C-alpha cells in the first residue's frame, strides 16, 4: 500500500487536494492550526481513506503538501522537526490573487526558495499552486483532457515522486525544472499563474 499523503492545511486548497488523493485510492492525513477534532466533518466527507492528526504527525509523512496562507508559512515550517530528505510540496501563494497579485517582497527570491530556506533538510517541490482553489476542486480530467499541473524543484527524484502523484490523481504533470526558475513562473504575477490548460488524454509529455 502506498504511504499516506500528508496535507498541512485544511482550507479550500487542502480539501480539494485531499479529495483527489482519496479518489485515486490513496490515503491522506490532514491537519489545521487548531486540532484534529475540528476536522471530523471534513474527514467524514472524504471517507475512510482520510484521517486527521496533529500537525507534527502529518508533517512526518514521506510526502507532505503545504497548503496554508502565506503569512503562516515560515513560522509554521520553522517549528517543525527536521525533514531528513522527505518531500515538501509547496502549494502556497504569497498573494491573495493569482492573476492580479500584490505579492510580498521576498528580496528577489521565489516563494519556494523561502520555503526551502525555512524547511531544514526538505526536498521542496513547487506544485498545485497555479489553479485557483475553485478550479482545483473540479475533476482533474474530463472529456476535454487532463488539466495541466506544473511542478518544479531542484531534486530530480523528488520531482519524479510528485509528478507520479500528479498523474495518479488525474492531472497532466509538466516539469518546469529548477526551483528558482519554475517557482517564479508559477507564483502570483508569473506567466503560468491562473492558467487552466488541458492536454488530450493521449498526449505524451517529454
Automatic annotation (TrEMBL):
UniProt-listed Pfam families: F420_oxidored (PF03807)
Stretches assigned to the Pyrroline-5-carboxylate reductase catalytic N-terminal domain: 5-93
InterPro entries: D-isomer_DH_CS1 (IPR029752), NAD(P)-bd_dom_sf (IPR036291), P5C_Rdtase_cat_N (IPR028939), STEAP_metalloreductase (IPR051267)
Alphabetical keyword list: Oxidoreductase
Record has tRNA processing as a keyword: no
Name of the molecule in the record: Pyrroline-5-carboxylate reductase catalytic N-terminal domain-containing protein
